[in-house]
User: Which sequence fits this backbone?
């Protein structure tokens, strides 16, 4: 892979020791835990649990006490088959929660693919934009030029197709090359627009237009590519864990598999951030491995 820009060369010298996101500078001396806060009635594993603003803020406070590093707030389910929600509805769900979260003293990530929603989120002080469409929309890219986005983190995720139909028949010639190629290309666009690689998270998008075979190929390749940013993975409670374990019960019963997947990604593959539903259990598992002297590779 060629070295395209000065920013990439600079990031390689810096070795990405910090993830910069908004008001925060997070050291990469241990894997970071991103806690999921779904303000939705229909998310695949926790829909409805935090749908009222007060329930969402209580859950955020609890995750803080459990040692979460970043909170990822979303108001639209992107599970396979999910119906899109309108921008107005997404904002109605989000605004009181984002307002309430400002006082928490934690980096706040906004999981949205809509520029108008993200714009409002930036005005309310979000520190990280998590775009499951990978900043393909030029309006989404343009937001990064706003003064309020000057320091925010960005998560570029890969998805094939749209949530409603993405699992119908996902196909790739070479899944690893195609997915990492897309992430690299999008990161280069953002680098060229002045976003530092220390602010970029790259996410293969497990389960987003991918079969079990595709997901496993990507998981195994996480430490391979010279990526232009940190790597984030979202494996928590996902269908692939049910498929691999043969446990076809409710997603919330996939804790054991989710912990194993998080430990593997963080300690074998060196990913920077794991996005999880079960914060307390994940923090505890990471802390134990650290205490036992297991060290993550200097990683992606
Ligand atoms: N997965 C989901 C949603 N957002 N963002 C990133 N960057 N990576 C992911 O893997 C990812 C994501 C789906 O999980 P969840 O939010 O729990 O479910 P739902 O979309 O049904 O709300």
Assistant:
């Amino acid at each position: 892979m060629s070295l395209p820009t000065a920013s990439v060369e600079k990031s390689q010298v810096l070795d990405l020791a910090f993830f910069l996101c908004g008001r925060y500078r997070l050291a990469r001396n241990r894997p970071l835990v991103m806690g999921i806060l779904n303000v939705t009635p229909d998310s695949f594993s926790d829909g409805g649990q935090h749908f009222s603003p007060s329930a969402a803020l209580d859950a955020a406070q609890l995750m803080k006490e459990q040692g979460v590093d970043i909170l990822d707030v979303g108001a639209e389910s992107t599970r396979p088959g999910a119906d899109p929600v309108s921008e107005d509805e997404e904002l109605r769900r989000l605004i009181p929660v984002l307002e309430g979260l400002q006082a928490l003293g934690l980096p706040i990530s906004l999981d949205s693919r809509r520029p108008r929603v993200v714009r409002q989120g930036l005005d309310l002080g979000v520190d990280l934009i998590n775009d499951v469409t990978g900043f393909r929309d030029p309006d989404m890219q343009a937001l990064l030029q706003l003064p309020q986005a000057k320091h925010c983190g960005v998560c570029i995720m890969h998805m094939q197709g749209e949530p409603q139909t993405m699992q119908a028949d996902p196909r790739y010639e070479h899944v690893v090359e195609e997915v990492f190629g897309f992430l690299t290309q999008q990161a280069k666009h953002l680098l060229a627009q002045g976003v530092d690689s220390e602010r970029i998270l790259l996410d293969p998008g497990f389960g987003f237009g991918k079969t079990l075979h595709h997901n496993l190929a990507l998981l195994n390749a996480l430490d391979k590519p010279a990526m232009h940013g940190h790597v984030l993975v979202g494996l928590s409670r996902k269908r692939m864990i049910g498929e691999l374990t043969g446990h076809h019960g409710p997603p919330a019963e996939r804790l054991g598999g989710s912990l194993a997947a998080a430990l593997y990604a963080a300690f074998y593959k060196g990913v920077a951030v794991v996005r999880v539903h079960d914060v307390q259990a994940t923090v505890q598992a990471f802390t134990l491995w650290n205490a036992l002297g297991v060290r993550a590779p200097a990683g992606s």
The chain has ten helices and ten strands. The chain has one domain: 10-291. The pocket of 6-hydroxymethylpterin-diphosphate is lined by residues 36, 38, 40, 43-45, 74, 77-79, 111, 130, 132, 155, 157, 203, 205-206, 232, 234, 275 (CB under 6 Å). The longest strand covers residues 32-38.
